[in-house]
Amino acid sequence: MNPIWLTVLGTAAAVPSFEYYTSGLLLSNLNDEQWLIDCGEGIQVPFFRYGGNYNKLRRIFISHLHADHYIGLVGLIMSMHMHGRKLPLTIYAPHGLAEILTAILRASDTQLKYAIEYYTVPEDTLSTVYKDSRWEVVAFPLKHRIPTVGYRITQIQQERRFLANEHTSSIPFEYIRRMKAGENILAEDGTLLYHCDDYTEPLPKLSFAYCSDTAYDERIIEYCKEVTLLYHEATFLEQDRVLAEKTFHSTAQEAATIAQKCGAKHLLLGHFSYRYPNRSVFREEAERIFPSVYIAKEGMQLNLNQLNHSKTHA
């Protein structure tokens, strides 16, 4: 199985700069597809620069309708159109986005070469917005100035780990492959030769949760319980907590507290205010609460399978 990669496309809160783009995360190798979470201004530039593929991008999940989280959709949609995309695209977002994009495309008399399907995400309740045989995507409410949702992506089916010992050394390799997939091995007469549960155990399920703009909200703890990697916004530091509360954002310490209480394995901080030129201070604040903290940076790639099998990062 190819590893699941998370690529950071943008890390800035509110406005982009020469160095930083606004919000965007790219997941690769999900059913041989790419999925994008949030789509800030000009996102097609880092998308293409850091390994995005216009034909593999099949799903886009938008957290809310503040411009730094969705306004890049217009450019991205047009870039894919100009590159000859034919495959349909599904966009998941709170109410209102379909009307906005439809009006823009209509005003410019744009006849896209591919179809866009819109899924309106419930804003105030836990809901499954996508599910197939391998992955489930659940949306959950966040606490922000306008309706905002987070997303949890959870692996449904995981390959098993084969327990090699003296009793299993004679099992043919082809049987091992089938047993790792959860199959029992039967003889031609139908009798049981090997029971997969006797020699294998499932690997831990991979999961990733995305909490974009939100004030500190302990409802998140249940929604993001024991995730492999939690992305949580950290717009401010504790020294500016009053400003965080006023704008319905979080501090690095609050993000780390959520990670600790929900039992996450790792924490990825992002959505940083431009008022802090040295971003290492976010890690310093968060690590007082939670041991495994990553600071999002444009172009950063994280192997989620590897994180799923580790306890803390180096």
TrEMBL record:
Which chemical reaction does it catalyze? Endonucleolytic cleavage of RNA, removing extra 3' nucleotides from tRNA precursor, generating 3' termini of tRNAs. A 3'-hydroxy group is left at the tRNA terminus and a 5'-phosphoryl group is left at the trailer molecule
Span of the signal peptide: none
UniProt remark on cofactor binding: Binds 2 Zn(2+) ions.
Cofactors needed by this protein, per the record, are:
Zn(2+)
What residues does Zn(2+) 1 bind to? H64, H66, H144, D213
Q: Which CDD domains match?
A: RNaseZ_ZiPD-like_MBL-fold
Q: Write down the InterPro entries for this protein, in alphabetical order.
A: Metallo-B-lactamas, RibonucZ/Hydroxyglut_hydro, RNase_Z/BN
- The entry's Zn(2+) 2-binding residues are D68, H69, D213, H271
EC numbers on record:
3.1.26.11
Residues of the Metallo-beta-lactamase domain? 207-272
Query: What keywords are assigned to this protein?
Result: Endonuclease, Hydrolase, Metal-binding, Nuclease, tRNA processing, Zinc
> What residues sit in the active site?
D68
Which GO molecular-function terms appear in the entry? 3'-tRNA processing endoribonuclease activity; zinc ion binding
Family to which this protein belongs:
Belongs to the RNase Z family.
Subunit (UniProt): Homodimer.
Role description: Zinc phosphodiesterase, which displays some tRNA 3'-processing endonuclease activity. Probably involved in tRNA maturation, by removing a 3'-trailer from precursor tRNA.
Kindly provide the name given to this protein in its UniProt entry. Ribonuclease Z
| UniProt source species | Thermonema lapsum
Q: What lineage, starting at the top, does this entry show?
A: Bacteria, Pseudomonadati, Bacteroidota, Cytophagia, Cytophagales
